[in-house]
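I am still learning, so can you show me any protein sequence you like together with the matching structure tokens, please?
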Amino acid sequence: MQAFVTRRLLALVPTLVFASLIVFVSMRLIPGDVIDLMLAQNDLSTDHDRAAIEAALGLDQPMHVQYFRWIGGVLEGDLGRSLWQNTPVTEQLAATLPITFELGFLALIVALTVALPIGVYSALKQDTLGDYAARSFSLVMLAIPSFWLGTLVMVFPSVWWRWSPALEYTPFFEDPLNNLAHMIVPAVLLGLSLSAVTMRMTRTMMLEVLRQDYIRTARAKGLNETRVVARHALRNGLIPVVTLIGLQAPLLIGGAVILEQIFVVPGMGLLLLEAVFQRDYPVISGVFLVVGFGVLVINLLVDLSYGWLDPKVRHQ
């Protein structure tokens, strides 16, 4: 186990370096750069002005020099400074990362709370009215984007009932109730969107497991149905579901970007969106580096959970 974890942690380094290189280069290939935006904002247009701003921001160097300078700072714990606010990227991430983590955590709780019980119920009641209703619900959630639902929630309740979700963010430790009042609506929308695939996977795996010989043996021994399902069927059917949950980690961030914009949640998704509009390269690179690291760690935890779910799995 220790050797497996060590190998996986070492594999994080080249993966993150390769991902950072892709992000670093691709952002600079997008038409229009930060210099154009700064010149337009300050009503400047001469070549001298452009050269002065490029030199001040360190963008006058070749791209590979800029990259190695940035990656060298990353290895020392410095993600650079914002080109617009001149504030350290680490400070911006430290302020926004917990908010996005809270939103993603709440959304994941909603997704699992909805998907697992309905998926198990749908498998146990195969081809009944309840099964058809659960499958239809999952198809609807698959077809409807979470940001579209978010827009509807923002618009129609305010028109029909003069109510709209709370839009003023309050830190959790200052006022937990107001914080949850602000976060619960986007978390539910994001969680419902993520629950659809997990629900269908849970149903499929439970149907497969419930047909196995050892399940029939457990029933023949006189075990009650609840124990058969909870202890024998569900645990063995969860491995593909857990894998799917790990693969959905990037979707938590991707979905949060738009929902944070709609519900004015000052998280990392909103920070990334503003940085892309402003071509704030250090902020964009820093956000993607942190997100990539988080996704890789989540997938490592998912791999480690296999040994707990199935004793036959051994990590070497």
